[in-house]
Amino acid sequence: MSNNLLAGKKGIIFGALDEKSIAWKTALACHAQGAQLVLTNAPVALRMGEINKLAEAVQAPVIGADVTNMDDLKKLFEESQKQFNGGVDFVLHSIGMSLNVRKGKHYTELDYEWNKKTLDISAMSLHRVLRTAWEMDAINEWGSVVALTYIAAQRVFPDYNEMADAKALLESVARSFGYQYGVKKKVRINTISQSPTRTTAGSGVKGFDAFIDYAEKMSPLGNAPAEACADYCVSLFSDLTRYVTMQNLFHDGGFSLTGVSEAVINSIMPPSE
Ligand code: NAI
């Protein structure tokens, strides 16, 4: 269904790795709603080549950028401005990577060099993107920036490991920069806290299958699928949500406000006949 909610809008989408990626689905949804796009990912991810399929589907150029490299980000915004013949109306930050998780380090035994990289890639990268745009004045008035996060920022999910700290930092950057960019240019910045979703990053979390099953049982509406997350992103990029900023918005089928559900109780203690 298309209502052309993003007609005339131009956006940069970070983080489409393969067709399971939330960013991939969001790019498709934004394109269907009339947006013009630039796709970007880390050079190592581009070498997989998958993104070219998406680029063709949404008629967008692909510009490589390691989100921890300020020169790459500057080039990305310069080339996007050329491509769009002006500024950007929206940005999706859909990036996450934990070196300690990847290398099997327990939270109590973090390697701090890896931890620094995790926080840089997964959280401070939002600051880097916003700062680059700020210095180049690359985001248009009433522009919208969305970053993806997870409820482990507020509550403990032990296997989420150092990514819990990364998400807490990411959400804080969204608030703090949201204030600055709101005052300066009415640019809004929000995070969407998404249900567990089967993607490359998601499946890296230990015990992911049990995790996703538990969340499904705990959510009155069930886990929110990636396609629905893409639709939520579209709404936040559209003019229908112009006064929403500095928020962490739960997109989780009601998980975050459910104490316990009958489905979970029944799975622990089946009802007696
Ligand atoms: P994904 O693995 O498809 O996407 C992660 C992306 O981050 C990849 O495209 C990867 O290339 C990119 N990336 C990693 N290092 C980078 C770097 N240095 N520079 C630029 N890009 C880099 O997985 P998914 O799930 O679509 O992840 C997107 C976002 O959604 C992440 O922030 C993730 O934490 C978040 N999220 C995911 C959930 C899940 O269960 N899958 C739940 C809640 C939030």
Describe the structure.
The termini are far apart. The protein has a single domain, classed as NAD(P)-binding Rossmann-like Domain (Rossmann fold, 3-Layer(aba) Sandwich), CATH 3.40.50. With 273 residues, it is of the alpha/beta class. Strand 1, helix 1 and strand 2 form a beta-alpha-beta unit. 45% of the residues lie in helices and 15% in strands. It has eleven helices and seven strands. It has helices spanning 22-32, 43-46, 51-58, 70-84, 99-102, 112-136, 163-185, 200-203, 208-218, 226-237, 262-268; strands spanning 10-14, 36-41, 62-64, 88-93, 139-149, 188-194, 248-251. The longest helix has 25 residues, at 112-136. 1,4-dihydronicotinamide adenine dinucleotide binds at residues 15, 17, 21-23, 41-42, 45, 66-68, 94-97, 121, 148-150, 194, 196-197, 199-202. NAD(+) binds at residues 15, 21-22, 66-67, 95, 167.
Please provide a brief summary of the model.
The chain is an alpha/beta fold and 273 residues long.
